[in-house]
Amino acid sequence: xxxxxxxxxxxxxxxxxxxxxxxxxxxxxxxxxxxxxxxxxxxxxxxxxxxxxxxxxxxxxxxxxxxxxxxxxxxxxxxxxxxxxxxxxxxxxxxxxxxxxxxxxxxxxxxxxxxxxxxxxxxxxxxxxxxxxxxxxxxxxxxxxxxxxxxxxxxxxxxxxxxxxxxxxxxxxxxxxxxxxxxxxxxxxxxxxxxxxxxxxxxxxxxxxxxxxxx
Length: 215
Fold this sequence. Notes:
35% helix; 215 residues; alpha+beta; three-stranded mixed beta sheet
């Protein structure tokens, strides 16, 4: 099968934007010297298999359907290998292996049988090549921003938004409060429970301030 010239990905080819927030290093502590900095990738996009299939089809002569077919077969083979207790080396990416453990703690001298062994999950061990590739990434940060879940910070950001727009959805909430989409959903649910936001009856997924607050 004819292939296009392979394009290598160069380390540092893109600058990854990050967001830094202050976080408490110990639950319940309020002392300044116990606060640290948490850094997360900002505005990261979720890549679906269809997106990767499209990119691969543009890089070589295989079609998107071919990519889906091969990936489906790989999924079956990987799961079959894991069911045999095998380790799977994924080329230059790394290795998958089965993690096992015990169902609970055993006291000294207590009988231990195979029934006490359970699957804990699947572990991924990155290869040296992947680790070195990631270590070469370049990052950009505009400084420390207020924590998106701090009441005052979220309140100020939302006041600014509702001063211009009557509604907000989870994605806009994430942008306004500078938080992840999952955090936005969780925070919206909390605000709805507190009566500070209500869901619009005509547009699903859109939220507004209660009537008395909107005035």
